[in-house]
């Protein structure tokens, strides 16, 4: 993309701003290397990855990048066989492996939002882990970069001998110092080291008394640093041990390097992957800090719209100063190619111009831009800019000549997919000639289909929109009372200059101001008056629009309150009806039990006719109880439907597409109380439907086609499982004695309807109160031919098994 335009838009400064949010220099380098591109596939992937990273750093457990050492040069040298790394480089390798392992464990955790694992998974899969090599390096090398004594048995022995030799040598030298004559000895002198050899300081006149080798002298020459003969042999031995130690250390480092050499490519890929994650982290952190959105990118020639847009550099400066940036909205329809912005100085025209360009460059570089999510950011093949004073003394170019040079290049290179930004078009020369040149340039760019945004003060150019199709006037509003900019963009209306008004406000002599107004052409004064009227009417309409919005918001709140109250009333009505029917069913069951007792008493008395009447009464009670149970199930289905509608919302309920069913359609299954599923296969008048994790064959006419629900993250189950069959056991643990009647009886009814031979009732051991009450209820029910405690493999005394006839 055009480097000159990116420089004018200060795009490198923006990259530095984003790169400052990275935690490593490698990540910052990747941010600074970003450039605008038209590769839509790459852009969609980058913006999706930034969105996933925003989810990772903004959850309950915010993720933060691990430290990443720069091992690029060391990894290149790893190709050379036999070459060993330094201890610092090996520590860097251990750090790299540790950061890779921790990053993979953290970002790949199941506790992360599904989008994080799904989108960042390909990057995480490139992270190489080698716990054995990581631990081997940490065992051998200390954090300060020195090799540990226990890195090898030989090194431990050599260092032990070295310490002993050093101690013995110092003792020899100290004894030699003690034997010196007082006039040869230096006061407070001690053993020291010169040129790698241990020596003692003596006065020059005592040189002959000591003998040995002189290794150094003081600056005055009065003190000599001498290695006595008795210390020379020990000194040589120490040098030998130090040489052997250095060789052993080198061998250990080379051995550790050889362990890493087979993993050179995975390590290099890991380094790149961690830098890539840090780059995504920097962009996501920037986007969260400045409330940016990864808005969709659209071809500029089809029209675009940016909502609540803000200049990113101005936004950063305002954040540092604690001030606010006023956002702007800009929409260009498909048939609009040129936007001509006019108005007074200090009104924000140049900021608007640059903001549009830098926002598009950001979005085309994979960086979320400071716009609202409802925006559609334009995508260009290139950006051209003629902004600011670009005169060059060296090239003998005046300001006007520099502008013409830029405009000439723009006219030569700009295409229908380009963006052209021109500030103060037609300035720098005679206004008449400047307006004529500006008119011709804009007319050519508009004819070509180039997206052009230009600012001007020339009144003649404001007439361009009335004579050339696809040219639109716009202005940045100015408060005529306070004579201060409002920075609010208004399309369709050119701006006034306010030059004379500002002169009057700044106390220019009234006679001079009045004479200036008289010198204005009548047509210019008429246009100014008309624009002033339009601005006043627009202000009135804007105020009325705000009032209408406030009234609409209040009405919506009131409607929501009414709907909420209605739902609460209906919920209370359903709860009251449910409780009444539960009571009625319990009374009927008690009556049936009483009838059974009477029948048993009559049977014992031998009254057959009365027994037959008792059976009829019992059947009637059972039918009434079953009816109440069915009504309870109906109430539960209604409540489930209410909850489902509440989850999907009124908009989803209102939008139910019709048309014939097709495989893959989302449907509501009428036979399952309106549960949602997806059509897998059509078989004549039937359809195979997936509801949750179950597949069912249902009549096609029982299905209602609905809008597809929002895409669920990978690994989730859409909907809940349908209750299509009774359960062979019921769990009463945790309930009170007075709560289990309805639950147990419903389970018995469902088991009998499902033709089960028995029902397993889990009540636990506890105090035995639940078990006793369950036994009493089962004893009253004549459909149960036997009840027993569970066997050892059925739950023992914590379970009762009810057997049916």
Largest sheet: 6 strands, mixed
N-end to C-end Cα span: 85 Å
- Roughly what fraction of the amino acids lie in strands? 15-25%
- How does the overall form come out from the CA principal axes? flat
Integer-rounded radius of gyration: 44 Å
Helix content: 40-55%
Mean pLDDT value:
81
- Low-confidence segments, given as residue ranges, are 391-396, 649-657, 710-724
- Secondary structure class reads alpha/beta
Figure out the total of helices.
Answer: 23
Q: If strands are numbered along the chain, what order do they take across the biggest sheet?
A: 10-11-12-8-13-14
User: What is the number of beta strands?
Assistant: 23
Characterise the protein shown here:
- The chain is an alpha/beta fold and 805 residues long.
- It is built from 23 helices and 23 strands.
- The protein has a 6-stranded mixed β-sheet with strand order 10-11-12-8-13-14, with helices on both faces. A 5-stranded antiparallel β-sheet has the order 18-17-16-15-19.
- Helix 4 (40-57) crosses helix 12 (264-289) and helix 6 packs antiparallel against helix 8 (131-140).
- The chain is flat, with a radius of gyration of 44 Å.
């Amino acid at each position: 993309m055009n480097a000159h335009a990116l420089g004018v838009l200060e795009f490198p400064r923006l990259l530095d701003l984003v790169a400052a949010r990275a935690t490593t220099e490698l990540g910052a380098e990747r941010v600074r290397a970003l450039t605008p591109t038209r590769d839509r596939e790459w852009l969609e992937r980058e913006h999706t990855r930034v969105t996933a990273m925003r989810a990772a750093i903004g959850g309950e457990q915010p993720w933060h990048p691990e430290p990443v050492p720069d091992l690029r040069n060391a990894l290149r040298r790893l190709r050379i066989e036999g070459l060993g790394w330094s201890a610092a480089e090996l520590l860097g390798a251990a750090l790299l492996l540790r950061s890779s392992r921790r990053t993979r464990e953290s970002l790949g955790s199941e506790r992360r939002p599904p989008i994080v694992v799904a989108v960042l998974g390909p990057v995480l899969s490139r992270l190489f882990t080698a716990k054995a090599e990581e631990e081997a390096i940490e065992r051998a090398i200390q954090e300060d970069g020195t090799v540990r004594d226990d890195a090898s048995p030989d090194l431990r022995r050599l260092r032990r001998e070295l310490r002993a030799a050093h101690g013995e040598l110092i003792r020899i030298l100290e004894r030699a110092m003690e034997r010196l004559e007082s006039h040869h000895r230096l006061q407070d002198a001690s053993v020291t080291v010169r040129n790698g050899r241990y020596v003692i300081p003596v006065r020059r006149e005592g040189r002959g008394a000591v003998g040995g080798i002189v290794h150094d002298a003081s600056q005055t020459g009065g003190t000599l640093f001498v290695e006595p003969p008795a210390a020379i042999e020990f000194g040589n031995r120490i040098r030998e041990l130090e040489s052997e130690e250095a060789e052993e250390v080198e061998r250990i480092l080379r051995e550790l390097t050889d362990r890493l050499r087979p993993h050179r490519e995975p390590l290099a890929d890991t380094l790149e992957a961690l830098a890539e994650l840090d780059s995504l982290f920097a962009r996501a952190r920037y986007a969260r800090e400045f409330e940016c959105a990864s808005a969709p990118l659209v071809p500029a020639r089809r029209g675009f719209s940016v909502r609540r847009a803000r200049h990113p550099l101005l936004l950063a400066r305002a954040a540092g100063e604690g001030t606010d940036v006023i956002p702007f909205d800009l929409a260009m329809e498909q048939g609009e190619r040129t936007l001509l912005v006019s108005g007074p100085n200090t009104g924000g025209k140049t900021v608007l111009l640059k903001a549009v360009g830098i926002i598009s460059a950001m979005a085309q570089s994979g960086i979320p831009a400071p716009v609202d999510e409802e925006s559609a950011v334009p995508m260009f093949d290139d950006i051209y800019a003629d902004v600011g004073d670009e005169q060059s003394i060296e090239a003998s170019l005046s300001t006007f000549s520099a502008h013409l040079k830029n405009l000439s290049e723009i006219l030569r290179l700009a295409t229908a997919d380009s963006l052209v930004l021109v500030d103060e078009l037609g300035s720098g020369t005679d206004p008449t000639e400047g307006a004529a040149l500006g008119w011709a340039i804009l007319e050519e760019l508009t004819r070509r289909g180039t997206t052009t945004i230009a600012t001007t003060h020339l009144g003649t150019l404001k007439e361009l929109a009335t004579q050339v199709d696809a040219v639109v006037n716009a202005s940045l509003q100015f408060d005529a009372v306070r004579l201060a900019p409002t920075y609010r963009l208004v399309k369709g209306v050119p701006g006034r200059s306010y030059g004379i008004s500002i002169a009057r406000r700044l106390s220019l002599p009234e006679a001079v101001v009045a004479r200036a107004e008289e010198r204005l052409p009548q047509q210019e004064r008429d246009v100014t008056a008309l624009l002033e009227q339009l601005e006043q009417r627009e202000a009135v309409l804007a105020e009325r629009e705000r009032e209408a919005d406030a009234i609409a918001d209040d009405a919506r709140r009131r409607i929501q309150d009414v709907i909420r109250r209605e739902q609460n009333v209906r919920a209370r009505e359903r709860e009251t009806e449910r409780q009444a029917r539960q009571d009625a069913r319990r009374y009927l069951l008690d009556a049936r039990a009483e009838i059974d007792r009477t029948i048993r008493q009559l049977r014992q008395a031998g009254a057959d006719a009365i027994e037959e009447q008792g059976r009829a009464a019992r059947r009637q009670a059972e039918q009434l109880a079953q009816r109440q149970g069915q009504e309870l199930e109906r109430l539960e289905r209604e409540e489930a439907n209410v909850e489902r509608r509440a989850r999907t919302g009124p908009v989803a309920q209102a939008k139910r597409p019709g048309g014939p069913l097709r495989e893959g359609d989302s449907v509501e299954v009428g036979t399952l109380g309106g549960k949602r599923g997806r059509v897998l296969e059509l078989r004549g008048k039937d359809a195979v439907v997936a509801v949750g994790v179950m597949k069912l064959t249902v009549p096609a006419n029982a299905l209602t086609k609905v809008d597809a629900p929002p895409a669920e993250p990978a690994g989730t189950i859409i909907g809940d499982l349908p209750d299509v069959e009774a359960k062979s056991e019921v769990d009463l643990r945790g309930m009170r004695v007075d709560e289990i009647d309805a639950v147990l009886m419903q389970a018995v009814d469902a088991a009998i309807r499902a033709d089960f031979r028995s029902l397993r009732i889990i009540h636990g051991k506890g105090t035995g109160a639940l078990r006793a009450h369950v036994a009493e209820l089962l004893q009253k029910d004549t459909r149960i031919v036997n009840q027993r405690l569970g066997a050892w493999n059925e739950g023992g005394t914590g379970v009762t098994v009810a057997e049916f006839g």
